[in-house]
User: What shape does this take?
Amino acid sequence: MKKHKEHSEQVLVVEDNPDLRMVLETELEDDYEILTASNGREGLELALLHLPDLVIADIMMPVMSGIELCSALKGNELTNHIPVVMLTARDKESEQVEGLEVGANDYITKPFSIPILKMRVNNLLESRRNFRERMMRQWRDGGLRETSPAPFEDPLVNRAVELILQHIDDSAFGVEELAQTMNLNSRTLQRKLKVLTDQTPREFIRSIRMREAHLLLRTGELSISEVAFQVGYREPTHFSRSFKQVFGISPSQLRDRGQE
Assistant: This one.
């Protein structure tokens, strides 16, 4: 079940108790778009389909437990970035250890305080936003140096980068081509990149082309037109406009600075 709230982060609630599931949905729906499932298998299917921003899952459920769900999410490159909050009716250290071992990000014992749950959800989502900003700052700052930046912390994003770089001089290599090469549909690629980089696939591809252009221009070995072709632009004027939109200066201005 899905309850839509426009322009908000998405939280998946996986709970077999219908009353508690309703309470969680009601308490969270003012701040987030809510998805609900009654067992781990339904939750996993929804997670793979929607790639929510966070999952709240009961540990004891039929069909697939919360532990199994968390393990499946953390073991899949499409969903391994999603924070998971585990709920349990039993205050057992062994269960908490088991949940943390499979990658759970937080653990709450029932009965719990709704304000505390909300605060923990907010803190995890804020941490995810900070992580995303750090990733993009790392990538952007690396592009302004003459050395390549460190890889992203997510393997799927790194794979996307590698594939774009392999086709960097192909002007026809766009979103559909990237998705097909990665064996993903365009919607899944869109969701994953947006969550981790705050960019659409089109913006992400352009940012990598521009980063490579910046590096090539700093070396001074190629003309601006040659750099444009090297990073997949067939019209140097279009390349120059895109470059200025990203870096705030034109390719020729960057080249002039490098010669000073």
User: Anything to note?
Assistant: Residues 126 and 133 are 11 Å apart (CA to CA). The first helix runs from residue 18 to 28. The first strand starts at residue 2 and ends at 3. Residues 151-259 form a domain with the Arc Repressor Mutant, subunit A fold (CATH 1.10.10.60).
